[in-house]
Amino acid sequence: MPLVLRIALPVPLPTLFDYLPSASGAASVGSRVLVPFGRNKAVGVVVEADVPAHVGNKQLKRVLRVLDDEPLLDAELMQTLGWAADYWLGAPGEAYANALPLLLREDKALPETQEPIWQLTIAGRSALDAGSRRGGSRALLQVLLAGPMSTTELDIALSDWRPAVRRLAEAGLIERAEPAPSANFSPAAATLALHSEQEAAIAAVTEAFSRFQAFLLDGVTGSGKTEVYLSLIERTLAQGKQALLLVPEIGLAPQTVRRLRDRLGVPVEVLHSNLAEGERARAWLRMRSGESKVVLGTRSAAFTPLPHAGLIIVDEEHDNAYKQQEGFRYHARDLALVRGRALQVPVLLGSATPSLESLANVEAGRYRALHLRSRPAATQPPQVQIIDMRAQRLEHGLSPALLHAVGDTVARGEQVLVFRNRRGYAPVLLCHSCGWHAECPRCEHPLTFHAAWRKLVCHHCDLQAPVPSTCPTCGSQELKPQGQGTERLEEALTAHFPQVPVLRIDRETTRRRDAFEQLLGNLADDAPTILVGTQMLAKGHDLPNLTLVAIVGVDEGLLSVDFRAGERLAQLVVQVAGRAGRARKPGRVLLQTHHPDHPLLRTLLAQGYATAAKELLVERKQTGLPPYGHQVLLRCEAHQRAAVDAFLSEACAALPDTNTLQIAGPMPAPMPLRAGRQRGQLLIEASNRRDLHAVVRPWSAHLAQLPSARKVRWSLDVDPIDL
Ligand code: ADP
Ligand code: ZN
Ligand code: ZN
After folding, report:
1. ipTM of the shown complex
2. Could you tell me if residue 233 is left (phi over 0), alpha (psi between -120 and 50 degrees) or otherwise beta?
3. What pLDDT, on a 0 to 100 scale, did the predictor assign at position 435?
């Protein structure tokens, strides 16, 4: 057998591909190569070199070109990626594709690692003095007056500055400056005197530097977790090592980046999906070369090379945004832990509301718990009260007690947050005469009524439809919006409190990249305001004058059949409540519900998240659900229900007959129809993870061979977070 290179190609096939080495040069493991693939070419990563081929000489093609003299992915990343593809049952090529920024997946030379730095020319200065430029161009000139700025810094300072750069560079008003690293970074800001719990947490993690240990830093919002991260990153830098800080959303990034830069006095790389591709690739490469020491990023930043790794931190570790929900379905927190072990560095998970998974790991002695119980920035924890909505006269879903409290708060000159996790005006448009309601034909799910757009929108498939003026079934004009979304609450609160500004913050009002920051930035003057918003408001950004949080419409979470719904609801309530009283003034939280006696709410309010989580864990243990049991979900969809049924029943029949597994299904998915496709699933559970993988691994390879697989789309999800 000839010796070949075994290569991961970015295709959703559960296999590596053998190629003969290129005539022109050797390729080592971790290098990228260009290969012929079908009628095209593809860029792949060498996973194994000089191994005997699986197939005969005749079928083998030759690598066209070796793109990297030195491996782009180091041994640790290669090992971790191999592990990840195996664990999450992903196509190996897709795992590698996730790890590399888009630009590095192309057949091109690596971009320079230095990002452009822009500065004013003499002509630029005169133009500014003469006032000859307007709008975006003028804003850019003005910003550069303070000194040269890198693209990353410009991103923070301005929105949408790229067209202006092009115009001004062509006009000779600005030019690229020679890179002067760290010239723009001010020295570290004076550090706070840490309190004793912070000291203890820092000491525990520092003691574990240079070996693997997982920690769970459990502390309410405002308890000083970020200060702990900052101190630990400082110490990591002092040892000449690199730190990776993961955050769940970019919404949290700008504020944290600023805090890191001010404090550490070194460049901080940022990696998230809203970044321009060039910047993303450069940041990745600067971490790989060791030129940069700190990276802050969202999910995919968990794949950043860390040749001088010192510390990995996962903030808000409970957040579901860490789980990728399509393609390669990895979990960034779990990947971070695997990397910590491979790199022999501590991994610090932080949260005010730890996931049940992490709490179970603490219980089992696998993670060490660190607690921050006091709250330096607040006088006292917010008081939480339940408002019983039963038998109340509601005004657009708002109870008199709630409206009263809102009125009192703004009258005192303070700010209010009304939290409702639903966009739009109303989740249902109902005919009062015959009971018809507007439904998405592609999902068989109610359409959300959006008043400002005058549209019905499906939140599952984005279908848009005009709002009918009469009922299509009975012709009645009595079409009534049912239930409340943020848009309706905004309208109701504006009508009720005409003298107070009402600010809505949800995906619609924050479409633009920095709109969220801007909207909240406008509140800096602390004027009395009513904020209405979704989950987006649950975190980030300190609002020191926000003293009342009103939570409405959480009952869906109490009644859901999803076994994780209780955990999510508890986390959400605590996170949202944490927004109140970050001020010196005491905060208050109102929770409006039709189920005031629900045991979860009772425990949560009377005894707090830790106790509620403990009770939820007991239930999970009794029922053998995660984290005590392990799950793999096979999802399937097709235009024809029969195709779904055929595939799932063949898949089910292909499972070995063993008593280590429990099998649920085949059954329809929770949404049996979505975007016009029939959906079904098969859930496989086991109390032992190894048993589960031992069966599912060969089975997943077999699934691709089933004749019925060609008529459906299917995917496997290991440790699914929504069933
Ligand atoms: P968390 O990340 O847990 O929400 P932060 O680290 O952001 O908490 O701290 C909340 C606020 O308290 C911040 O304004 C921070 O500067 C301040 N803070 C944190 N630790 C201390 C301390 N030891 N002394 C005084 N203020 C502190
Ligand atoms: Zn009707
Ligand atoms: Zn739909």
Report:
1. 0.97
2. alpha
3. 94
pLDDT per residue as tens digits for the range 500-541: 999 888 877 776 656 666 666 666 567 888 989 887 776 656
Query: Could you tell me where the beta strands, DSSP code E, fall in 127-279?
Result: 149-150, 174-176, 214-219, 242-246, 268-271
Q: Is the CB of 219 under 6 A from ligand 1?
A: yes
Protein residue with its CA nearest to atom 14 in ligand 1 = 377
pLDDT-based confidence at residue 152 (cuts at 50, 70, 90): confident
Atom of ligand 1 nearest to the CA of 195: 23
Task: Report whether 238 contacts 308 (CB < 8 A).
Answer: no
How far apart (Å, rounded) are the C-alpha atoms in residues 305 and 448?
Answer: 43
What is the Å distance from ligand 3's center to 8 Cα?
Answer: 36
What are the pLDDT digits (tens) for 327-355? 999 999 999 999 999 999 999 999 999 99
Instruction: Please report which confidence band the pLDDT of residue 365 belongs to, taking 50, 70 and 90 as the band edges.
Output: very high
Assess whether the C-beta atom of 351 lies below 6 angstroms from ligand 1. no
* pLDDT, averaged across the chain: 89
Q: Which is the closest atom of ligand 1 to the Cα of 227?
A: 6
State the pTM of this model.
Answer: 0.87
* Alpha carbon of 506 to ligand 3 centroid (Å): 20
The burial of 682, by beta-carbon neighbours within 10 Å (0-12 exposed, 13-18 middle, 19 or more buried), is given as: buried
Taking residue 618's Cβ as centre, other Cβ atoms within 10 Å add up to 10
Distances in Å between the alpha carbon of 494 and those of 216, 518, 596, 709? Answer: 42, 21, 28, 54
Q: Which residues pair with 679 in a beta bridge?
A: 637
